[in-house]
């Protein structure tokens, strides 16, 4: 299977984002998903036969700090190294930053540890009523 990776946001449409955010109880609409990516500091995409199958994004001050809020791979493509490659590409893109942080659910800690991230304490606030990014599903 040949996977193409790109950081060209112009190749992505809202329709290509419809199958992502699996298991989110109140996901943003496809248009809001694209807005999130457009507002990012950096993005990387994975394509298989012109189908968008994965993406990662980072937000940043552009100087010192970056945060990776989303890494998404379609369920049927998980376990094939696509998420790992997206993380590698993003880490390369952010290599000049002092800090690159990820907040993840406990089951994902091993994945990120294997990719060079270290565990530390974090505090977060979540307003699940806003999970849809202000859009109705």
Describe the fold and architecture.
With 137 residues, the chain is an alpha+beta fold. The protein has one domain (4-130): Gcn5-related N-acetyltransferase (GNAT) (Aminopeptidase, 3-Layer(aba) Sandwich). 19% of the residues lie in helices and 23% in strands. The protein has 3 helices and 5 strands, in the order E-H-E-E-E-H-E-H. It has helices at residues 30-38, 82-93, 109-113, and strands at 4-6, 42-48, 51-60, 65-73, 99-101. The chain has a 5-stranded mixed β-sheet, with helices on one face. A hairpin with a 4-residue loop joins strand 3 (51-60) and strand 4 (65-73). The radius of gyration is 15 Å and the shape is globular.
Report the CATH superfamily: Gcn5-related N-acetyltransferase (GNAT)
Any idea of the CATH topology?
Answer: Aminopeptidase
Global outline: globular
Tell me the radius of gyration. 15 Å
* CA(first)-CA(last) distance: 33 Å
H-E order = EHEEEHEH
CATH class: Alpha Beta
Give helix % range: 10-25%
Low-confidence stretches: none
CATH architecture name = 3-Layer(aba) Sandwich
Number of strands: 5
**Helix and strand composition category:** alpha+beta
Number of DSSP helical runs: 3
Brief rundown of the structure:
By secondary structure, this protein is of the alpha+beta class. The chain contains three helices and five strands, in the order E-H-E-E-E-H-E-H. The chain has one domain (4-130): Gcn5-related N-acetyltransferase (GNAT) (Aminopeptidase).
Can you lay out the helices and strands and say which pair or pack?
Blueprint: E1 4-6, H1 30-38, E2 42-48, E3 51-60, E4 65-73, H2 82-93, E5 99-101, H3 109-113
Parallel strand pairs: 4-5
Antiparallel strand pairs: 1-2, 2-3, 3-4
GO molecular function: acyltransferase activity, transferring groups other than amino-acyl groups
Domain N-acetyltransferase: 1-137
Keywords: Transferase
């Amino acid at each position: 299977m040949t996977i193409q990776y790109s950081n060209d946001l112009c190749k992505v449409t809202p329709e290509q984002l419809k199958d992502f955010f699996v298991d989110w109880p109140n996901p943003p609409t496809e248009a809001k998903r694209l807005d999130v990516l457009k507002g990012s500091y950096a993005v990387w995409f994975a394509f298989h036969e012109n189908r968008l199958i994965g993406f990662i994004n980072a937000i940043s001050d552009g100087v010192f700090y970056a945060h990776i809020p989303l890494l998404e791979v379609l369920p049927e493509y998980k376990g094939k190294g696509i998420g790992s490659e997206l993380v590698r590409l993003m880490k390369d893109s952010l290599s000049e930053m002092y800090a690159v942080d990820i907040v993840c659910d406990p089951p994902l800690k091993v994945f990120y540890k294997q990719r060079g991230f270290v565990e530390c304490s974090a505090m977060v606030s979540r307003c699940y009523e806003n999970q849809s990014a202000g859009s109705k599903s």
